[in-house]
Structure formats: structure tokens, C-alpha cells
Amino acid sequence: MKRTLVVLFAAMLSMAGYGQKIKGSDTVLPLSQKEAEAYKGGSVSVTGGGSGVGISALIEGSCDIAQSSRKMKFTEKKKMESAGKQPKEVVIA
């Protein structure tokens, strides 16, 4: 099964030294938590709630990375674009 991680501004935030907030898929959550624990370069907060919750949080700007076990819906992409953000989907598994 493919799992998709939606990434927005992640590289910029990590280069700037800011903590990152990751939210979304409960399916991807265990993997993200392990990676966050292993990451020594800064503060990483990982929470679940579901793919839709993570994508909504990304659109609203309350998280930096939305983890999703599905592709973004057309309507979600349009909302991101309306918010002035360009989504980037990255398959992680």
C-alpha cells in the first residue's frame, strides 16, 4: 500500500532551525513518531487524527507537514491553492 506524505515548507523550516509540526494519518503515525524520536536536529511534534485532519491543518497553517495514507482530493488541492500554498505530495512507502 502506498502512503503519501504531503510536505509544504519542510525544507525551509528545517534549514531555518524551527521546530516542525506533523499531523495526520494514524496509519503513518508510528513511522513518523519513530523518525521524530531519532531526529536530533530540532524539535519535531507528531500527532495523528486522520489524513483529512492533517490536510485541513496544513491548509489552515496549524501544521508544517500533513501525513496522509491517501492522495489529496481535488477539493483539498484547490483549498491549498486558494490559501496561496502549493502542495507537494511525496510517497514514502
Automatic annotation (TrEMBL):
In terms of InterPro entries, this protein maps to:
Phosphate_ABC_transporter
Which superkingdom, per the lineage? Bacteria
Q: What is this protein called?
A: Substrate-binding domain-containing protein
Which source organism does the UniProt entry give? Candidatus Onthomorpha intestinigallinarum
